[in-house]
Amino acid sequence: MAESLEAKLEEEWRTIELYEKVRVVERRKKIIFSTLALLTFLTLCAVPVVEERMPKWKTLKAAQQLSFEIDKLKLISIKNKKPARLTFLENGDFKVELIDQCKTTGPESAPAKLVEQKHWEQDSDELKVLNPAETLKFDVKLAIDEICFDPVYGAEDIKSKKVVVIAPVKDLSENRLDRASYIIIESDSAKISIN
Fold first, then answer.
1. Model pTM?
2. Strand partners, 129
3. What SS3 state is found at 131?
4. Paired strand residues for 182
5. How far apart (Å, rounded) are the C-alpha atoms in residues 3 and 17?
6. CB within 8 Å of 161: residues ≥ 6 apart
7. Which CATH number does the domain housing residue 172 bear?
8. In angstroms, rounded to a whole number, what is the distance separating the alpha carbons of residues 12 and 154?
9. Is 189 helix (H, G, I), strand (E, B) or coil?
10. C-alpha dihedral sign at 42, 43, 44, 47
11. Which helix (H) or strand (E) holds 13?
12. How far is CA 31 from each of CA 26, 40, 45, 126, 182, rounded to the nearest angstrom?
């Protein structure tokens, strides 16, 4: 009789252990399901935010790439011991030219030697570098679409601050400039900051 009581108790303990294992598995399933539901919810909540901010992120990335090209302009000028000019073109291209003087522009200026011309951004059909006339309707008066750097005098045309404005094309049709990025160029040393 003692053996049957012991066997009964042992059987009850095995049953309790089995139920405990089942409860642990059920608890893990609930935690995994809750975590997946929470992650799905947060992902769905993030979609509108990402869609709204993506153009700003693209303009910031483009501003970073263009600031690299402006720094490269200074190196080209110093290496060749001649003034170099970077001009932003309409179709998302830019060109770097070696010229005789930064001050002379227009038809009377000497011909420029093209150093390079390339695309500044893979999303350039969505982004645009604004020229000074386009920025005036947004009250941005310091905008430029051309930078000249002389190895001796620096960027003479930039005594205080000048700005290169990169804006999403879609925002321009909506007359807004809040998702644009700005490359701020200061002093004749052409110190660059991005905003």
1. 0.73
2. 166
3. coil
4. 165
5. 21
6. 142, 184, 185, 186
7. 3.55.40.10
8. 90
9. coil
10. positive
11. helix 2-80
12. 9, 14, 21, 43, 46
CA 101 remoteness from chain centre: 33
Rounded-to-integer distance, Cα 45 and Cα 103, Å = 53
**142 phi and psi angles, rounded to 5 deg:** -100, 15
> Does the residue 141 lie in any domain?
yes
Q: Which residue has the higher pLDDT, 152 or 39?
A: 39
Residue 39 lies in a domain: no
Residue 71 within any structural domain of the chain: yes
d(CA 163, CA 194): 10
Q: Which of 141, 111, 138, 129 is nearest to 168 (CA)?
A: 129
Mean pLDDT, residues 154-158 taken together: 70
Q: Are strands 127-129 and 161-168 parallel, antiparallel or unpaired?
A: antiparallel
How far is it, in rounded angstroms, from Cα 161 to Cα 182? 12
Query: Does 88 fall in a domain?
Result: yes
Residue 33 scores a pLDDT above 90 = yes
* Sign of the dihedral through C-alpha 23, 24, 30, 33: negative
Look up the domain containing 80 and give its range. Answer: 52-194
How many C-beta atoms lie closer than 10 Å to residue 180's C-beta? 25
Q: Share the mean pLDDT of the chain.
A: 82
The pLDDT assigned to 39 comes to 93
pLDDT of residue 31: 95
**How confident is the model over 63-121, as pLDDT tens digits?**
888 888 888 888 888 898 888 888 888 777 888 888 888 775 555 555 778 777 777 66
